[in-house]
Amino acid sequence: MNVIDDEYYMGLALDMAERALGQTGVNPVVGAVVVKDGVLVGLGTHLQRGTPHAEVHALNMAGSNAEGSTVYVSLEPCSHYGLTPPCAERLIQEKVKRVVVACEDPNPQVAGRGIAMLQNSGIEVKAGVLRERAIKLNRKFIKFISTGLPYVTIKTASTLDGKIASKTGDSKWISNEGSRELVHTLRHRHQAIMVGVSTIIADDPQLTTRLSVPGLSPIRLIVDSKLRIPTTAKVLNDNLAKTVILTTEQADQNKAAYLTEHGIQLIYCGDNAQVDLQLALKQLGQQGISSVLVEGGGHINGSLLQGKLVDEVVLFFAPKLIGGVNAPSSFVFDGYDLMQDAISLREMEVEQIGDNICIRGIPVWS
Ligand code: AOF
Ligand code: ZN
């Protein structure tokens, strides 16, 4: 049984926000709860960019009960005119008594001003209730709004000896169905999915979100420095989601023209033999992509790691050992001489899914 206190109501605001993960684009997920004299009178969630913020939905539901109420919001109420008016102003107009906030809004246009506006109007503000959970929930938004770069999650599915295919290239299936459902949930929650052209050549995947209920498919990003992608590839022809190719100035111009004519966007990322992944992420950020799920292969995963461009790894392991000196591995890069230089992960989470194991962690970039 839960004790009824500030955390109890904030937990509800966070639960609602969590369910909207994946559908707010570059915006954060936010939940709001209005409580008057011990009664829940308003609930709201920010659903999509350009639609009302969480507080507005919750206050609309509360109606005249908003006056004298306590409002729980999982993110500091905004103080600026964006696509919608400032929530702090609305809370003041409604004469709420107290506002409880989980975490401050790192958006430079807000950054403490929302809380200050409320306090200056005599509203009691308590900040930091379930702060850690709120920060974790909006880690993609926080990275994007403070750096302009998308949040990068690498997902791998490998044998226990770290192989993503056998020496002959066979990879169907390594992980179990439960793991694959989680992967599709990850796809729903990212704005874009990234693979190398070798994956397209080897597997011709759809890279869409397929769950037991409808999900959101991410934009498909193909890293293809020489434009080797077959014109028959599903991602170029199925119209199931947008496809963007990340390439270089060295790519064949005739192929580039063909792809452009067929509605495929090309983004040029340097004139080296390989796509400059740092430049790629910068340009994706500029185009409003705030999160990228990387599904390999090993060379892209390795290059991203070496470039310190990774924010999170989600590693699925199946209880198999396949061996093969040249069988593809999840992370291919030069590596480090000493164990003390190895990339370590913090905030490790381990989950068992049937006979598979999912390990999540945040790489430490010192
Ligand atoms: C809130 N409550 O529910 C959300 C907030 O373009 P707009 O008008 O949607 O504003 C987006 C910014 O507002 C976003 O970057 C973040 O700082 C804040 N989001 N704030 O008070 C909400 N979604
Ligand atoms: Zn707002």
TrEMBL record:
SUPFAM superfamilies: Cytidine deaminase-like (SSF53927), Dihydrofolate reductase-like (SSF53597). Its cofactor is Zn(2+). The keyword 4Fe-4S does not apply. Binds 1 zinc ion. InterPro entries: APOBEC/CMP_deaminase_Zn-bd (IPR016192), CMP_dCMP_dom (IPR002125), Cytidine_deaminase-like (IPR016193), DHFR-like_dom_sf (IPR024072), Eubact_RibD (IPR004794), RibD_C (IPR011549), RibDG_C (IPR002734), Riboflavin_Biosynth_HTPR (IPR050765). It catalyses: 2,5-diamino-6-hydroxy-4-(5-phosphoribosylamino)-pyrimidine + H2O + H(+) = 5-amino-6-(5-phospho-D-ribosylamino)uracil + NH4(+); 5-amino-6-(5-phospho-D-ribitylamino)uracil + NADP(+) = 5-amino-6-(5-phospho-D-ribosylamino)uracil + NADPH + H(+). Keywords: Hydrolase, Metal-binding, Multifunctional enzyme, NADP, Oxidoreductase, Riboflavin biosynthesis, Zinc. Its EC number is 3.5.4.26, 1.1.1.193. Transmembrane segments: none annotated. Signal peptide: none annotated. Pfam families: dCMP_cyt_deam_1, RibD_C. Pathway: Cofactor biosynthesis; riboflavin biosynthesis; 5-amino-6-(D-ribitylamino)uracil from GTP: step 2/4; Cofactor biosynthesis; riboflavin biosynthesis; 5-amino-6-(D-ribitylamino)uracil from GTP: step 3/4. GO terms for molecular function: 5-amino-6-(5-phosphoribosylamino)uracil reductase activity; diaminohydroxyphosphoribosylaminopyrimidine deaminase activity. Residues 4-126 form the CMP/dCMP-type deaminase domain. The keyword Metal-binding applies. Converts 2,5-diamino-6-(ribosylamino)-4(3h)-pyrimidinone 5'-phosphate into 5-amino-6-(ribosylamino)-2,4(1h,3h)-pyrimidinedione 5'-phosphate. PANTHER family: 2,5-DIAMINO-6-RIBOSYLAMINO-4(3H)-PYRIMIDINONE 5'-PHOSPHATE REDUCTASE, DIHYDROFOLATE REDUCTASE FAMILY PROTEIN (AFU_ORTHOLOGUE AFUA_8G06820). In the N-terminal section; belongs to the cytidine and deoxycytidylate deaminase family. This is Riboflavin biosynthesis protein RibD. The gene is ribD.
